[in-house]
Amino acid sequence: MKDENRRSLVVIQLSGGNDAMNTVVPYNDGIYHDSRSAIHLSEEEVIDIDGSLGFHPEMGAIKNLWDEGKVSVINGVGYPIPNRSHFRSMDIWHTAESESIAPDGWLGRTIREMDPNHKNVVTGVNFGRGLPRSLHCKGVPVASVGDLETYGLMSDIQGSENRDFALSFFSRLYGPHQGRDVILEALGENGINAMIGADILSSANSEYSSNIEYDDNPISNNLKDIAKVIFSDVGTKIYYAQHGSFDTHAGELINHAKLWKDLSVALGDFFDDLKEHNREEDVTVLLFSEFGRRIEDNGSGTDHGSGGNAFLLGGSLKGGFYGELPSLELSEQVEGDMKYNNDFRSIYATLLDQWLGVDPMPVLGSNYEQHDFFRKG
């Protein structure tokens, strides 16, 4: 592996609850076909992996990365006492706390550990509107970018002289002053951080050059913007984006296929871009969803379940399957769901310790068994 200082983590949230069984398909399992008479995928349709499991037919670009040893599939992912509420389950994944309500997110805590003195206001960047709970942590600055091409402070003001005047006024307004109360001080700090972050990230767009043609859809645009920031070497370590909705209660065959086609093609282009710039060993991508779906279909879709899967992609991975694939036997099911056997915080602990070089304990609050995802040396 290359210089550890250049390593970064890209987290892509598959919002809505991805159907694990129609993503990594047990196409030789009779229970799978019997349970999903309306939405099962056949041996002829899937992209075979090992003679018994296959990727969804729209995951061709991910299968190419799998063949290169750059994809790890983590099976049976979940947590004790599964929750089928989107809001609560996503909150558990975002905070790494399944028993109580945590005040901040695991990635926010990670950024705090990596940059305790806030020397770099773009250590973490969210690509999308708002700030995901996972990136929130008191006192930790995180930039949120909707579109890098138009991103910047007061970028809609015409004329450089007018914009410079507005920025100067903004700086005086939000800059440090004696005697401010706590709220005004916090607003001032956030304002200055926003101005600094906008200035840093705006350079990434103008300096970007690539031969890769990305598709024009939200997840492709997000990954292209992430690539731009990676290549600009401004010290960003954590990148976040969302894709979905995977809440496929109805019309799953069509909707699920479109979601995975867009994501797979986007990831293929992203890794081609990393390879062109000699950075594919510096980046690890995590794909996660708040829960899986039920084993049985509901007619044309699937309802909220558990025992899902997660993915890692990157040039420094060993690749392959990790964790035990949950059995579909009735005696092994939990109220019609796949039984989880792999705590998602083990994935977090591995990424923190072995990839980002961060002690997992202050972030996760407990010790979790780690996986052996990464190549040595």
Please give the oligomerization state of what you see. Answer: single chain
Q: How many strand segments?
A: 12
Order of helices and strands: EEHEEHEHHEEHHHEHEEEEHH
Q: Tell me the fraction of residues in β-strands, as a range.
A: 5-15%
Poorly predicted segments: 153-160, 163-175, 177-192
What structural class should be given to the helix and strand makeup? alpha/beta
Q: Quick check: average pLDDT?
A: 89
* Number of H- or I-type helical stretches: 10
Q: Note the overall shape.
A: globular
Distance between the termini: 5 Å
Whole-number radius of gyration?
22 Å
* Main beta-sheet annotation: 9 strands, mixed
Q: Helix amount, in percent? A: 25-40%
What does this structure look like?
By secondary structure, this protein is an alpha/beta fold. The protein has helices spanning 30-35, 60-67, 86-95, 106-114, 160-174, 182-207, 218-232, 252-276, 344-356, 360-364; strands at residues 8-15, 24-25, 47-48, 54-55, 71-78, 124-127, 143-145, 238-244, 283-288, 308-314, 320-322, 342-343. Strands 1, 5, 6, 7, 8, 9, 10, 11 and 12 form a nine-stranded mixed β-sheet that branches. The chain has a three-stranded antiparallel β-sheet with strand order 2-4-3, with no helix packed on it. α2 crosses α8. The protein is globular and about 55 Å long. The termini are close together. Residues 153-160, 163-175 and 177-192 have low confidence and may be disordered.
